[in-house]
Amino acid sequence: MKRAGVFVDGKFVGFVEHGGKLVRALREMRRQGEVAMQINVAFYAKTNEVFINTDEGRVRRPLVIVKSGKPLLTKEHVDKLAKGELHWKNLVESGLIEFLDAEEEENAFVALTPELVTPDHTHLEIDHSMILGFASSQLPYPEYNMAPRVLMSAQHAKQSLGLYASNFNLRSDTRAHVLFYPQQPLLQTRAYRNLRLSNRPSGQNMVVAVLSYKGFNMNDAVVLNKTSVDRGMGRSVFIRTYGAVERRYPGGQKDSFGIPEEYVQGFLGEEAYAHLDEDGFASPETVVKGNSVLVGKSSPPRFLKEISALEMESERRRESSVTVRGNEEGIVDAVILTETTSGNKMVKIRVRNTNVPEVGDKFASRHGQKGVVSLLVPQEDMPCTKDGITPDLIINPHAIPGRMTAGHLLEMLGGKASAMSGGIKDATAFSGDKQADFEKILLANGFEAAGQEVLYDGKTGERLYAKIFMGVIYYQRLHHLVSLKMHARSRGPVQMLTHQPTEGRAREGGLRLGEMERDCFIGYGAASLLKERMMDSSDKTVELVCGNCGSLAYTDRQKNKSYCALCESSDIQPVEMSYAFKLLLDEMKSIGIFPKLKLGDRA
User: Fold this and answer.
1) For 276-301, what is the HEC assignment?
2) For residues 103 and 52, what is the distance between their CA atoms, to the nearest angstrom?
3) pLDDT tens string 81-117
4) I need a labelling partner for 180 at 20 to 30 A (CA). Which of 52, 193, 228, 240 fits?
5) What's the maximum distance between 2 C-alpha atoms anywhere in the chain?
């Protein structure tokens, strides 16, 4: 038999006669406590290689060891754990439970439940839900949803607004969102409780109706109750921190905080600095708009020239104040003055802005059901039950069958039962409360077991023709706020190199007309519109071209005459072209290719 290569922490150390035998021996020694518990070993039979990992940073998870078709962890051990006679550490040291990393897991055959264990199995899951990661273990009833929806839901959990840190008032994060009235969900998983995530909630329980509302919630759009929003539902604050440092430069020059003098290069005018204090900083609770000055600051000139004795008196300085981003506004929340590690004066100014849910903001449940607000309806115009209960949010019925998120419906039913019984329900994967339990609670409280309600139109008072499924479900507001995305441009800055509009909202950039949009214009035969978008509104330029040799010509300003630098011909024609094309010609010349333009009269 061919000898197996042995790698320790990815480094080749030698060969061994029987790779599988070595791995089995090392595992047994680890379970006996003869080698460190942190070591993981794996044998790849296909490549005949042994990998031994001892390095830090590996993700490892605990599993119950199975021998001869029987788990080593018994009910007696579990009872002793519950009484406190045994500790988790004792189980690991006794070789009943071991931690596997991703590499050793390749050699394991793990059973999900004790009933499924066969003689072929090597390990048993401690609990069904432990196959899930940090984000997905918090989601209610993931086993009722399609896998892509669970994945999407885990992504939404990371994007939700909540209380990200209880000391956010003392922090100076570059950007942060804080939900005003976060709530813990009515349906929680064991992982959610054990991680104590109810101390850092990131959503609110809403009364939701599954109903088509006059076409406003087509596709994934949602309709919100405006009165609920006025009461504070989904309201959040956006915080951005701006900073400035008094830097020191070679030659003894330095920046200085304060209201810049009039003679400073780039002075913005007295009005721009009107709301600053004498020290050059905006006061807390000052309302600031886009491009308002937050920190008055002046700096020495960028390029030092030799200063003569006459110029020493008036040192030329330039304006370098810190301003609010052009497309944002808010209220100065706090001003923090401190020093950097090198002893330079530093200021941090926090600006807050309250964001009330509006048309275009994004909401999502914990089942990958994301939607954008399409309408805010006053409570009196919303459909209501005979008891006067109106939904906070309306989602479209078509969102459920195609996505197959039955967990969404089950959470609505469970949330309703939880609200009626006054207790938090368990929605842990594979072992949560069942639908039958919720139906019993609803029947006991005078509701229909299926969670359906008879609704009345808020505007006409007429009874709606169908019974509507209505329940309570945890919804998250995601940080995709329309106020932070809204962008338009008429004229604005262009790039120096290509003369095309800059890119991105932060730089007042243009809205890109891509290749597919171009194809549509060509398909419609809209040639003039295409030229306007691609040339006139972008980087149109007029270049002089030699009619004789086809190279680019130039104008001698002193003689007021145009020449061709190559053949000195005076047959020069102005040609309209994209500046990017002219740049391409120049770049081709730079690598030794000589492009020529053949001129002809327009047909």
Assistant:
1) ECCCCEECCCCEECCCCEEECEEECC
2) 9
3) 888 888 988 889 888 999 999 999 999 999 998 999 9
4) 193
5) 104
For residues 585 and 121, give the distance between their C-alpha atoms in angstroms, rounded to a whole number. Answer: 68
Name the residue type at position 259.
I
Single out the residue of 480, 476, 475 nearest to residue 238, CA to CA: 480
Q: What is the DSSP letter of 345?
A: E
N- to C-terminal Cα separation, the chain: 81
Q: Which residues participate in catalysis according to the annotation?
A: 348, 480
Which residues make Cβ contacts (< 8 Å) with residue 433, sequence separation at least 6?
414, 425, 426, 427
232-267 pLDDT tens trace:
999 999 999 999 999 998 888 889 999 998 888 988
- If we measure between CA atoms, which residue out of 493, 492, 500 comes closest to residue 583? 500
Burial zone of 581 (CB within 10 Å; 0-12 exposed, 13-18 middle, 19+ buried)? middle
Comparing CA positions, the residue from 271, 277, 309 lying closest to residue 296 is: 277
DSSP annotation of 264: S
Question: For 196-261, what is the HEC assignment?
Answer: CHHHCCCCEEEEEEECCCCCCCCCCCEEEEHHHHHCCCCCEEEEEEEEEECCECCCCCECEECCCC
Listed in sequence order, the residues at least 6 apart from 295 whose beta carbon sits closer than 8 Å to its beta carbon are: 242, 244, 257, 280, 281, 282, 321, 322, 347, 349
Instruction: Show the domains of the chain with their CATH numbers.
Output: 4-131 (3.90.1070.20), 142-235+359-477 (2.40.270.10), 237-355 (2.40.50.150), 492-603 (3.90.1800.10)
Query: How far is it, in rounded angstroms, from Cα 36 to Cα 43?
Result: 19
Pairing of strands 362-365, 370-377: antiparallel
